[in-house]
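Example with several molecule types.
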Amino acid sequence: MTDAAWENLSNQAVAACGLVYFLALLSHLVEWSSLRKVPVAAVSEAASSGGVAVATGGPEADDAAVRRTEVFGRLGFLLTCIAVLVHAIALAGRGMAADPNRVPWGNMYEFTLSGTFVVALFYVVLHRRFGLQWMAPVVVGLVLTLLMVAVIWLYDPVAPLTEALNSYWLVIHVVSAILATGAFTLGGIVSAIYLVKARRPDTSTGLLARVPALPVLDRIAYRIHAFGFPVWTFAVLITGPIWAHQAWSSYWNWDPKEVWAFITWVVYAAYLHARSTAGWKGRNAALLALLGVATLWFNFIGINYFSTTSQHSYASIPAVRDVGSTSARV
Amino acid sequence: MSSPERRPGELNVRELARWLWRQLTSMRIALILLLLLALAAVPGSIIPQRGVDALKTANWQDQHPKLTPVYEKLGLFAVYDSPWFSAIYLLLVISLVGCIVPRTWVYARAIRADPPPAPRNLGRLPDHASYDTDERVDEVLDRARVVLRAKGYRVRASDRDDDAVSAERGYLREVGNLVFHLSVLVVLVGFAMGGLFGYKGGVILVVGNGFANNLTQYDDFVPGRLFNAQDLDPFSFVVDQFDVDWLTSGPRQGMARGFDAHLRYRESPTADEKSYDLRVNHPLTIGGTEVFLIGHGYAPVITVRDGEGNIAYRGPTVFLPQDQTFLSFGVVKAPDAKPAQIGLEGLFYPTFINMGGDPVNVMGDDKNPKLSMLVYTGDLGMDNGTPQSVYVLDKAGTEPVKNDKGKPLRIDLSVGDKVKLPDGLGTVSFDDVVQWNRIQISQTPGKRIALGGVVLALIGLLGSLFIRPRRTWVRARREGGVTLVEVAALDRSGGGDVSGVIDDVVSALRGAQHKPGSEEKS
Ligand code: HEM
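Resulting structure tokens for the full complex:
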């Protein structure tokens, strides 16, 4: 296959997986809209197991509606799994289309493609373990939205890497940054739902009743963040500095990208502390988790537009860092 | 001295100090300081920082004359060295030491301690299970000890004659937490060493030229506060050749790749000469010093002869790239030219084309090099003692030279061209194009300490996050002709779910003699 064919395949796969995510979203929306009509008879049980609470029976339970929610819930998950597979093909195609072949995260478009893939993959993998059925529409909706943003605003044709990026540290550093980004994003979704639920924790009607109880949400959020934090530490405080040292001669430059990676790190450290500090548990911790995701995504997207000193602009990197700015005075 | 009477609620200095210390070392303050640190780091990413980009900072200051003095007072151009930023992280360090060090002794004791005895009523714990069996009590308990030990638990010794087994695991979690926090200090030490004892310098070298590592040879040099010039390693090198690949097709057409500077170097004046291919991402290490290739550009070779026919200026002239196509800007100064000083200022086009009358530079490779410069004459301001940048022409005392139409004269030269300046000023010729490299040279002592610190911190963190400290108890007693076995577990990290743990222990206990039907789990 030629490079152009791979690139074409990748583009088509992105479109296809977008479509399948969309179908998955529709399916979950049908599931949830018919859930509305089903009384929540088993909220407490479902809350402890972490699944979507579905009525277990009772005289007024609408059996057909119950069956419909189950069918559409399963269908939605199945479609999500398929979309993730196609998503993987899209990524592989990007990597194969480059000459020489490389990892598919050399610019913002590719980073977004990879990041959303990780979010979706984590969701699928953790689905059974943590019983994540209840967050399906949010996750699928977010992944779909980000993919659309990537296609519409961030698209870049496949291009060879600039020299500074041409290093095996690109693989290690960026893969860990993407993994952590995916985990933090997923964790942020759980924390957001926590906050919504915290406003009416005892509600027994409506969609919120189907979401697990607050302590369960808190624990799931913590487990996901506890995975993300060491990976982020590895990405921005170990591999990042090693690579920066090789490419730019100093391992920490207080470059805006680095500053914000550090800010994100500190905020998540504060989140972990908050979970074990009286008065900060729960709500405040969840707020900190959201602050963390905000800094994370601001760093990824915002800083590129906000600051021009960054050496990390994925969008366009001068061949070698531009010269003579700090120096060149004799 | 008689002590003054104290009103209730009044603190003396000592109590106040103790109260302050307790506040400072509390989790809450640590948390607030962490958030403050995050907040304090923000301005440095928005306002240009002198230490990051001095030129950009200077430009910003020129554009904001009102804000500049205020920002300067607040230290906003050097946020990460400012007193308030330092205050926050120093407080955090003190808080950390004050919090973690005393805990070390507690951990040290806890780590050798026996698991605590079983609570009287295991059924009261939130997670528990029970089943009946025909086995004897001591059989069950003996097996429980074996099973729990195999799962990595420490089993309480003094339970031998009791009716319960108490076990605990995950002692290393606290150690992980300690290691993590103490490693943060190690990282700070390493980081500080780099800032204090290291240096960073840069030089632009025309290909073919050499460099010897002493202060006079640097274009710019930023030493740490405690850096000693005697610590400069006595090496020298010559850039023999520089190769670049230019992409001639595809979406990044015109982009340069595969930079390769061929160096010959000596580690000391008496050492053997070696060679090294200096490339991006592949620095050369000599002793404690590292040499990096971080930039490149063109140096047109220009000769200026004055009105008397003498060479007033000759040589490769470093032009600085203005954009990704390597359209470059540079100046030539010939202060000794007679009858008048000559200054040139203008652009270098590596691949020039004329597009409908507009000069355009197509790409960075020097396929069709062209120089286009304006000519000035008068006082170049080089004799009054103030240092000047070699990249800027001081035009205050000069006049542009005019062409025969009375417009400022622009000379456009291809390689090999020579033009005569009006008014008997002399000639300018463009002889050749050579390349230059920007080489960065730095010493970063403490970098291994910092790296070791972070790696250690990560290991500690993994322990702290993923080791699940938990206590598990098994009690067995005769009741109504059978043995009732109760199993309960408690997660001490707050992150875990122990029902799976209990299931595991129960099935391991029953594994040998499983009789279905008598199980009851709550
Ligand atoms: C440089 C500043 C600090 C950073 C980056 C930091 C980071 C962290 C992180 C990431 C954790 C999570 C580990 C876990 O959940 O088990 C943690 C836990 C902890 N930190 Fe810090 N910390 C800092 C300062 C402090 C200070 C000043 C104190 C003392 C007041 C402190 C006390 C603790 C304690 C007691 C825990 C254990 C919490 C638990 O058991 O869950 N830390 N810290």
